[in-house]
Amino acid sequence: MRIPPRAALMAKCLTILATAACLCSTPAAHAERLKDLASIQGVRQNQLLGYGLVVGLDGSGDQTTQTPFTVQSVISMLQGMGVNLPATTTLQLKNVAAVMVTTSLPAFAQPGQTLDITVSSMGNAKSLRGGTLLMTPLKGADGQIYAMGQGSLVVGGVGAAAPGAKAQINHLSVGRISGGATVERAVANSLQQGNAIFLELKESDFSTASLVVDAVNKRFGPATAAAQDGRVIKVNAPVGTDERVAFLGALESLSLKPAQGSAKIILNARTGSIVMNQAVTLESCAVAHGNLSVVVSTDSNVSQPGPLSGGQTVVTQASKIDIVKDPGQLLLLKAGASLAEVVKALNAIGATPQDLLAILQAMKASGALRAELEII
């Protein structure tokens, strides 16, 4: 049977993914650092936002007839500098653009440190290339000013040329300023308060939380850590600043083997890509879908030792996959069949992403697929 090029390419990609899932079906347990599994409560970034003006554009700014807020911003700025315009003045601005400035204030940032900022047009400016951001206050969620931004914009990838053609590979309405913001206010944190800190697992898991508690108590002594729930772990820490920092450094570098995560399948409904984080087995079921049919069965092989050899009888099971395309048959699956093998067989007969989606959803609904199915 001839498969269209696009279907053949998709089938090849999915077969590679299914094969990778087979190879990773029995993942070897390996140690990970605690800093990769959990974060310290209170040690976090804070988003900052500001509204400002970009000037010096080469006629590519906002069209003031359609963006009146740009004109109002310019008038307010001039009034703050002591320039009062007549009420009948009509500004025709071509070199100014209203923008939103965004950045993140890292943990423990102190006044005087610089931050990279992103400047995005909020009007109908054609390009921010060559513009300069005027001094812009950057506020946090509490309305307080934590940084001030200003500087010349850099719009990457402008006018990139290919052999024989000229292509524009980036948005001209977004630019960045490296070190364009200066921190003016530090954010208070509770890290040095109290005699305990709290670890928050990045993924809630009771088994991993219990393993973390055991590892911390084994390293730093009994009763050092106690789990509050499946995510938060209370850890007793030294009170002194130097001792606490050294303790947290040792705590983050602690290695342990996390518990195996729950079975999960991610399916891209547009491309048909399937990713599995571990081997997913199926319960016995039968699915009919159009004219697609894959029969999966398990063969038992008995190995009988020779007489007086002292050996034992060994029974092994091997999966057998028969690929057919018959509208009169069902998709027969027996317990123990690997989902990776089923996907590979469906790809071999040219199943579309919609076919895979329908079959996996049917298996999940019937309870035969014991894994979390996420469709993106």
Q: How does this structure look, described?
A:
The N terminus is likely disordered. This protein is α+β, with helices and mostly antiparallel strands. The two termini are 31 Å apart. The chain has seven helices and 21 strands. The strands form seven sheets. A six-stranded antiparallel beta barrel has the order 3-4-5-10-7-6. A four-stranded antiparallel sheet has the order 2-11-13-12. A three-stranded mixed sheet has the order 16-15-21. It is found in: Bacterial flagellum basal body.
**Strand percent estimate:** 25-35%
Rg over CA atoms, rounded to whole Å, is 31 Å
Overall tally of domains: 3
Task: Supply the helix-strand structural class.
Answer: alpha+beta
Show unreliable segments.
1-28, 314-324
Element string (H = helix, E = strand): HEHEEHEEEEEEEEHEEHEEEEEEEHHE
Percent helix, as a range, is 10-25%
| Mean pLDDT score | 78
Strand count, sense and barrel status of the largest sheet are: 6 strands, antiparallel, barrel
Which shape, going by the Cα principal axes?
flat
Strand segment count:
21
Distance from first to last alpha carbon: 31 Å
